[in-house]
Amino acid sequence: MTALTCRRQRIKIETKETPCRGFTHTGGNKMKRNQLNLLALDLGSSNGRGILGRFDGEKITLEEIHRFENSYIEMGGMVYWDILHIFSNIKRAFQKFSLMNTGGLACFGIDAWGNDYGLIDKNGRLLSDARSARHTTAEDMERVHQIVPGLELFYQTGNSSYTINTLYQLYRRVCEGDPGIENANAMLMIPDLLAFFCTGEMHSEYTISTTTAMYNPTLKDWNRETIRRLGIPERILQPIAAPGTLCGELLPSVAAAASLKRVPCALVGSHDTASAAAAVPVSDNKENYAFCSSGTWSLFGIETDTPIFQDEMYENGFSNEGTVQGGFRPLKNITGLWLLQECRKEWRRNGKDLSYGEITAAAQRSAPLRSLIDPGHSDFFGVTSMPAQIAQYCKRTGQPVPRTEGETARCICESLALKYRWTIERLEAITGRPIERLYIVGGGTQNKLLNQMTADCTGKPVTAGPVEGACVGNLLTQAMALGEISNIGELREVVRNSFILEEYEPKQSAMWNDAFERMEAISGSRDLPEK
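and the corresponding structure tokens:
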């Protein structure tokens, strides 16, 4: 064993020295190579970004080179993504890279949210803009369950039943006699659709396919029998392709418009959560750990080689989704910092333009564990004023009503920490193994108050970082596809080398026990997640 010193606060990692493929040692543990320029196109439901990663074999550095707004469009009672707007901004990211004069681009990869898709006709053309899952209803889901009960479907696909699942979206179109699905020759999930626009190559990347409630992890193929029973045309299903491989290169027209060569495209963890999970800086794969990709939503789970099929998984809203290394992420989608984001918007509309730092400071000054909410309760979806809705929930459940911005923010953060504890305890019960550490990646790592509350509430040490989890996982999976990184262990070693990671040790855990019992008493609705 050699001591590899990482940019982590207060600890030193002990790990094996495992050189990356294609590198030579030049003294000590250092590996030298020419810099690789990699481009991550990371797409979220509110914005998209082009992130340049510079990889030297040991470390990767990030630079945002393009950002744009993204939003769905409502038209005629339907909700659509402006997919051509997104594609035009992807091309703009290529152009901005070209203007930087920073050397050639070695590769690019695309990650995005799950469940949504586009349809392509027999001529390779898009059949209308991509629909958003926001239009699908509980009635659409129930129509499927009349043919295939929800629990049966879970044991076929490993996915719990939520209206946003791709399967329910497609069956709605079948019931409507929609000409789009009747004329479709291919269904491509959002990142696969955009990769097709860039390269002309069609595929269904593994991790994004596992979000659809249409993939059968036992057969390692689409759940074709059920798809046929529902009348969904089987011809639209594309071959499932593994992440960490190359899948074509920029079309001549796209490359020429950006003054680039025909840059190769890598299949990354096309589901953004899969890319974020790849960047979890685990130092020992034998450690029993959980991860949380924390941001607008909190994707909270573990990693396994095989899916977990138990009634308790389905009843508690857990799903098995794919990992970059070809395994699974049994996880729960939890409403995350969206609650705080919505409060901040409302306070700003009312003339209080508070920074997140100011909100956190106000929360720290407020009394602890005074008021609690269930973050996943249906009361908090589709509301016009989040602070008012939180106050109403607390009043209805017989708790003190938050009166100030600090009290409201503290209520949200403490409730999220308690929800994380609830999730950890369910995962421990399902697997029969204790979770020893929690790794938090993503934008939520910047909320130090929530990180410490999570450690205190769960009684688990917390490691937070990197902030740009999905982008880091995307970029380093590109390096894997190019043969510069051999496996997920080497990928995570680069993460540990490249970013400052913060440690939070549990303190005052006992005071959270009563609060946890109170929260369980007031919780009364299954979560309604949105990815």
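(Above: one complete record from the training split.) The first helix runs from residue 83 to 100.
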